[in-house]
Amino acid sequence: MNKVVQPPRLIAWELTRACPLACRHCRASAVAAKDAAELSTAQCLKLIDNIVSFAKPTLILTGGEPLLRNDWFVIASYATSAGLPVALATCGLPVNDQSIEKMKQAGVRCVSISIDGAAAESHDAFRQKSGAFEACILAARRLRSAGMDFQVNTTVSRHNISELNEILKLAKSLGASVFNPFLLVPTGRAQSLANLELSADQYEQTLVWLAGQQDARIQIRVTCAPHYQRIIRQLGLSAGAHAKGGCLGGKSFAFISHVGEVQICGFLDVSCGDLRTNDMNFAAIWRDSPVLQRIRDVSSYGGKCGCCEYVSLCGGCRARANAVYGDWLAQEPFCTYQPGKASPDENDLVLMNAAQVAIPPVSRPFEALGGMVGMDEQQTIDRLKRLMKLGMIRRVGAVFDARKLGFVSTLVAARAGDKLAEAADLIIKHKGVTHCYQRMHEVDLWFTLSAAGGDLLQEALDDLSRQTGLVLHSLPAVEMYKSRVVFQLTDRAPHGGEVARQAADDAGVAITEGDKRLIHLLQGSIPLTPLPFDDLARDLALPAQTLLAKIQEWLNRGVIKRIAALPAHNKLGINANAMAVFDVKPENQAGAGKTLAALPEVTHCYLRDASAVEGINGGVFAMFHGRDEQALRAKIQQQAELLDASCQILFTGREFKKTSMEFF
Q: How far is it, in rounded angstroms, from Cα 174 to Cα 660?
């Protein structure tokens, strides 16, 4: 039996994207000119008729700047006469005594004004218009004088977090009924504001602070931070005075764009349906859209959100998940909470400590792996399945040496600046790109690129350079000192089912079509069953022993480095990650590389020629990982002193892509 879909309680309707401002954070990237494709007045009124036929939600008329649309009064009046409560979200500039009087005549119940700084300097810089702050203050005073209910919206980011208390005081002094902080979502123009995003810890601290600021004079609502609902319950505060849930998008809230696209929210540019092609039938889209059906099913959420006890209450910000991971069902990226049922126990860590090193290539590999850590076969399989479900293991499969398969790879660096998010979005679509990150440095965009040969690699570089408009610098490895992603997850050093093998040479191997089919299966996740290699052999119509013999041959020749469980280190508390570049004298580079490679904190270490990249000084590159940024920085600086070398530390900002290479 299908679950009854409840009608929305709140609809934000973007009447226009025209706006007198060009705010740095604008999700709509609004401009002064009107879009000719905006819904017509007749279409707007027909839409209202459809909405009231099945629901009575509060209608928030927004933009852009809704007051720039000539028929806003007609639309607002029609909606209120149909029985819909109407609110209006304005930037403040067009608000004067005449427009306020028209709002009252139209039956508008509440107006929101955006104030993003405690003074003109910070507000006007963020809104990119001199005088914007004074216009908002004047608008608020006029609304209060006219007896209109209004609220203050504030987009919270690093530019104003230190002013938040003063902004709250200002909202109270102006007579606002609600203070509504919006936590920055990196969409629209805000995609270029990675340097202004709060860290997960800052989000948590800010939300805890906001939870303690409630008083009788003003209500505090928090938008785009659904984990606020978890926090007020953890603090034992009454939920009655707050919103009734976390992220309402698609559940009791909808967004309608200026061209009639229904969306989960304005920050998540994923269409749930086109009103124009559906005869303005919002009710049908709300009821039947597959996108909305998925968003309502919280069991489909991934990562920490998918196994969190607060998932129904909070749900995480789907737009922020999409902006960071490219997947709107992924976990909330700016949440510090570790779900009680999601935290790995000691036995999980012991198992991962072994499984990340190597899983034995034998008929019953999980029985052998479990025997190393005191677990039976089924316990081992069940734990691995659970850890994959939690997102703590990315996959269980083979790690190949790309060079043995005829592939070449390089590290690529670029100065992206304001184009960072746009360029990364293009780059991560390329099949040969497996890792793509923002690094906190003037050279801010870094990715790895592989191809089946040097000519194809150069073609891919040239193509990506044309697409992004960026100068891309290729930094191929001159020497490899270490490439082994293994972390110390317990007090014991990582150990696992490593197998004896012959010394591998550097020569490639001949690959048959049958080999390609096997590689295709092994480069993904092998079945978590008692006889996984039997299952794979059955798919390939091979005897299991033939398949195992081929795997052993490839291990011996270095084609396969190991079969292992690949951990997602950021899900295991290893959240501090930095690429360190050491400027070492040429005669000392090999020794420095070997010294760094011996450190457990280092997963990759290479000698690269970075001379063409202005701003990067040095050639010995090492990836360091740790649980604490400050401690990791100290560790890197200590190594630089020991090596008598200068060092640049490029901490990871945003992770745009991280996956394993698909060869065939």
A: 55
